[in-house]
Amino acid sequence: MNILYNSTRNQNETVTASQAILKGLADDGGLFVPQQIPALDVPVSKLATMDYKEVAYEVMKLFLTDFTEEELKDCIAKAYDSKFDTEAIAPIVNADKAYYLELFHGATIAFKDMALSILPHLLITSARKNEVKNDIVILTATSGDTGKAALAGFADVKGTKIIVFYPKGGVSPVQEKQMVTQKGDNTYVVGINGNFDQAQSGVKAMFADKELAKKMNDAGYQFSSANSINIGRLVPQIVYYVYAYAKLVENGDIKEGDKINVVVPTGNFGNILAAYYAKNMGIPMNKLICASNDNKVLYDFFTTGTYDKNREFILTTSPSMDILISSNLERLIYKIAGNCSKCTAKLMEELKNDGKYTITEEMAGELADFVGGFATETQTAEVIKDLYDKTGYVIDTHTAVAASVYKEYRKNTGDETVSIIASTASPYKFTRSVMEAIDANQYASCEDFELIDELSKIANTSIPQAIEDIRTAPVLHNTVCDVDKMQQTVEDILSK
Ligand SMILES: *Cc1c(COP(=O)(O)O)cnc(C)c1O
């Protein structure tokens, strides 16, 4: 079956998978969605015998139907290799009545690696298929995590260059060190004298600039984005839910056909949407539990039917979930509106103009798969300590938001369905918050690297390479520019 993609805001514009990956966003500002969600065509009993790469192929071939078998297998092989520190790629750990699906074994020790390690390969394959002759230049603005994961994914990928802008002084010291030590001749990291919004606006302005596009084209380049709305990031994320279900069957934790719950610490709604797509492909799932931190715009949406971003932005210890506009929710809105692009476009217009919208009763009726929950900062810290005290297993702050929401859910509903918690970051990435949750008195006065050594001792796990790199790697990028010089900086880089 051939799957085409259309914009959530205009059903009539269809493109192939490779075109959707190249474009990222539709011209009308909508997100590309598959015209239908394909059903898995191999039984779970067979998937259970496969390794991660093989499962990835079985899932992705159904969505990326204009890729040949050879092309897709080649992308998969290049992505899920020794960049990951475990052959399982996404191992499952059972602790205190939940199954933690560890999605942080890639180069930057957070779950964005699951998709950003394959996106570059999907992108250059797409470019080749569509006879794009230009080199692809990835432009990204980052508030910290995405930038490093994208740099690691694109480093030394032929036919690409990547330029990341970050707010100088606006990211954590660890995040900055991770970026400015990035290796690869095609990687460029630029600090701007401004904040994240200014970095983002500057990048968007370059994407929209037709004159610049022409200039680039003449020089043999075109821009693209590694943003999480690209279906080239969504599709690879479906894989690990299918893989996890099959592994639970293989390990005898569930029987084939049993339903599972999935709990996801959510920001931009990409990860949990992938779980929803896995369910629609035929993986038996009961509830999809959407966990938020104090920025609980999604919890409010699921409980009231109104999405309202007009609220205070709260900085939390789970910064990758500090988000008030969950872009990928648009794909769910489209689905619960009965694939109505007019309805979706209207709601998104309201979001743009008023910062809020309310779905119809009928649409709300389609949300029965979802449960919204949130965890306060105190609850998040408590669950890290509790789980460690009980089992010795240490989770990061984002995962802890999900663990806390799951605990509440289980208590309130008595639902004992086997549940997977998406574990989205290594505790080593947020060591200070994690260690202070475990024992504030003892750890508050320690230096960062002391804490890392301490974590390694108490969790009995080895320090990931990504952290060792920060200790020792030399700074390779030191460009800083003013906000109004971003375009000039890009042109300078590309004219070298
Ligand atoms: C990006 C991120 C999230 C949120 O994922 P979404 O797909 O944006 O909902 C959660 N945890 C961590 C560690 C992340 O990096």
Structural summary, described in words:
The chain is an alpha/beta fold. The chain has a domain at 92-109 and 232-462: Rossmann fold (3-Layer(aba) Sandwich). The chain is 46% helix and 16% strand. It has 23 helices and 16 strands. It has helices spanning 17-23, 44-47, 52-63, 69-79, 112-116, 119-129, 145-154, 173-180, 196-208, 210-218, 231-250, 270-281, 297-304, 329-336, 341-354, 361-364, 377-391, 397-413, 431-438, 440-443, 448-459, 465-472, 486-494; strands at residues 5-7, 10-15, 32-34, 92-95, 98-102, 135-141, 160-167, 187-193, 221-224, 260-265, 285-292, 306-308, 356-358, 370-374, 419-423, 479-482. A 6-stranded mixed beta sheet has the order 4-5-15-10-11-14, sandwiched between helices. It has a 5-stranded parallel beta sheet with strand order 9-6-7-8-16, sandwiched between helices. A 3-stranded antiparallel beta sheet has the order 2-1-3. Strand 7, helix 8 (173-180) and strand 8 (187-193) form a beta-alpha-beta unit. It is globular, with a radius of gyration of 22 Å. The model has no long low-confidence stretch (mean pLDDT 95).
